[in-house]
Amino acid sequence: MSITRTTLAGLFVAALSLQGAWVVYTQSAKPPGPLRIEKVKGDLYMISGEGGNVAVYVTADGVVLVDDMFDRNHADILAQVKSVTDKPLKYVINTHQHDDHAGGDFKMLPIAEVIAHKNARANLEHIRQPYYEDTPGTPIGLPRLTFTDEASVFLGGKEVRAKYFGRGHTSGDAVVYFPDLKVIHTGDLFLGRRAPSPGRDGAPPRPRPAGVNIYVDYAQGGSFYDWTKTLDGALTLDFDTVIPGHGPLSTKADVVQFRADVETMRTRLVDMIKQGKTKDDMVNTLEADYGWRAKGCPPSPPTPGCLQFQQSDAMFAELRQGGR
Asked: Which backbone phi and psi does 174 adopt, to 5 degrees?
């Protein structure tokens, strides 16, 4: 009888804990933002609007997705897919593990196979801080299939190929290649850029030094130095059209320019270190010239828009060591 009472008491406490966690989650959950779908080329589409861009590849035997945005976008993503095909969803390939790209994995797993690089799965399984979750408490779905260097999905006579060229944004960044269409999805290794908005009274925007507002997630194995090497690998693929992690559809020339701007910015920061500049000097430069948010950022907890600043110590350490 005592064992039964103890067991029942434990179950009751666990139930209360789960109920409390669910209340916190539902109270903090954000409503999904509006999504839109556009044709990229042939039977390939792109869904955009809130999280990272999602690729939709339609075949005679089913659909392959690349990324799945936030958990809250799940129903809307399925609705967008249904607007272009009645074929079932078969596979989801993650470009990396951040929740604006892989946050929908938990709800995808019952209806599709989820594939990711082995490091992306490890990053999801053992999340290291600082790691910002858009909605803390959202259940995490772990991919069932992983790869090391390359994986291919063959469906309805079409191929989708996931390639790993190395670290950059994280340690598990995959570039997904649609060889028949000469299209790649880069995840956040490349960000599409729109023309800058004019200044006040229609004045031309203030020119900025060559560089990009990237985020190197050191807690999840990212590398500022390896980023350009990884892009060099992606550029060996035969493609002309790019679905970026965020931003508009782009071209191979845009990736080449982005890679050059990353290297130019990194070289400038390394030169500042050699000149004996302080960390504050470099953070101010990053904020003023490259769009980082630094002022007003707390050192913790992980805060939206502040992760670059909150991992700046790790970035400067890598730059001081010369990428070693």
From this structure: -110, 140
Alpha-carbon distance values, 228 to 68, 86, 189 (Å): 26, 40, 9
* Distance in angstroms between the alpha carbons of the first and the last residue of the chain: 62
Domain boundaries, the chain: 36-193+208-320
User: What is the secondary structure of 11-46 as a DSSP string?
Assistant: HHHHHHHHHHHHHHHHHHPPPPPP-EEEEEETTEEE
Whole-number Å distance between alpha carbons of 157 and 53: 25
Q: What would the DSSP string read from start to end of 37-71?
A: EEEEETTEEEEESSSS-EEEEEETTEEEEE----G
Q: Residue 196, SS3?
A: coil
DSSP class per residue in 105-165? HHHHTTTSEEEEEHHHHHHHHT--SS---SSTTPPPPPPSEEESSEEEEEETTEEEEEE--
Per-residue pLDDT of 273-302, as tens digits, reads 999 998 889 888 988 898 888 778 888 888
pTM over 0.85: yes
Select the CATH number that applies to the domain covering 36-193+208-320 from these four: 3.60.15.10, 3.40.50.1000, 3.40.640.10, 1.10.3470.10: 3.60.15.10
